[in-house]
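**User:** Once you have settled down, spend some time on the protein underneath, comparing sequence with structure tokens, and judge whether sequence predicts the tokens.
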Amino acid sequence: MRTLAIASMSAGLVLAGAAFAQVPSEGMFLSAADLKATVGKPVGGLAKTNLPTGPGVTIIAAYRDADGEVEVHVALNDEFVVQDGHANVRVGGRVEGNHQTAPGEWRGGVITGGRTYAMSAGDVLWIPAGSPHQVVVPKGGAFRYLAVKFEAKAP
């Protein structure tokens, strides 16, 4: 497996892999194989890594083989782009029993109501800031996706 490291240099971020390094002013490229290799085996049902990007957005490559916790991000939108596998993603409704894990970030509890989206490769789902959501992976299944996180702005 190739490993991916992100190192900070005076010019910005440099993506260093087994056979390549890139200059940030030229953009950052990951092949599908490199992207898949950046995310290891799940621990506790989830493996994830942050991908290189510019200011104002975070992109997480994630691989799940078990259900995720209910999440609520007060100030961040999520955009899921499914790469492989299947999962149901519940969005909206009301959450009870969660706890704050960081400023503006809540985890745990149970969602009541909302809508469930059956997701598979190629599907995209936008989750507005403040909406409870949870990824539910079928027993014995797996789900690989990108989670793009960006600040919610008032209209």
Observations:
- The first strand starts at residue 5 and ends at 9.
